[in-house]
Amino acid sequence: MTESTSSEAAWYCVKTQTKRESIAAAHLRGLEGVEVFCPMLRYRKATRRGKVWWVEALFPAYVLARFRLETEERAVMYCQGVRGLVRFGDRVPAVPDDFVEVLRQEVAKQGGDEVLTVGPKIVEGEEVELAHGPLGGVRATVVEVLPARERVKVLLEFLGREQVIEVDLFSLLLPRKPLP
């Protein structure tokens, strides 16, 4: 039914219920012989209530678990919040150990416990567009980034003159950069 080339523990991709990755990870951690890695993404988002921190799974509806497929599969499959294992036909592929290790190192760089914090990356001289307000749609050039206040000074042409104005970091649209 499943791939069983060795009795060694390996990393597998576990499907979870939608928006229940943390619940599934917590219950899987309670199983003996199962190691879980559930990386989360933390970012700020502008809402009607203001700027709010959001925390979501890096891989929505999936967690990574290390266990012995032959002996622990049933316990993992029937754990709360789990929908199953990722399968290709009757084969359950293992996730490479080096992939999980690199991901863990990236998370450890930020000192977080499975949480990666991301934010908009804006540099001086970059072309941006104002997203809303009376100047919505106007293109400008970043002059200075004020990270502590989450503000940006931009240079724009308004009424025939160049003006430097200070705007909210989250009110800017960043240009789509071509992939290398």
Explain this structure to me?
- The model has no long low-confidence stretch (mean pLDDT 86).
- Strand 3 and strand 4 form a beta hairpin.
- The protein has helices spanning 21-29, 69-77, 97-109, and strands at residues 10-16, 35-37, 40-47, 50-57, 62-67, 82-85, 94-95, 115-117, 127-130, 139-146, 151-158, 161-168, 172-173.
- It is an alpha+beta fold.
- It contains three helices and 13 strands; from the N terminus they run βαββββαββαββββββ.
- The strands form three sheets. Strands 1, 2, 5, 6 and 7 form a five-stranded antiparallel beta sheet that branches. A five-stranded antiparallel beta sheet has the order 12-11-10-9-13, with no helix packed on it. The protein has a three-stranded mixed beta sheet with strand order 4-3-8, with no helix packed on it.
Radius of gyration: 23 Å
Along the chain, the helix and strand elements come as EHEEEEHEEHEEEEEE
Largest sheet: 5 strands, antiparallel
End-to-end distance: 41 Å
Bulk shape: elongated
- Helical residue percent band: 10-25%
**Total number of beta strands:** 13
Helix count equals 3
What's the oligomerization state?
single chain
Q: Which structural class fits the helix and strand makeup?
A: alpha+beta
Calculate the mean pLDDT score and round it: 86
In what range is the share of β-strand residues? Answer: 35-45%
Task: Pick out the low-confidence regions.
Answer: none
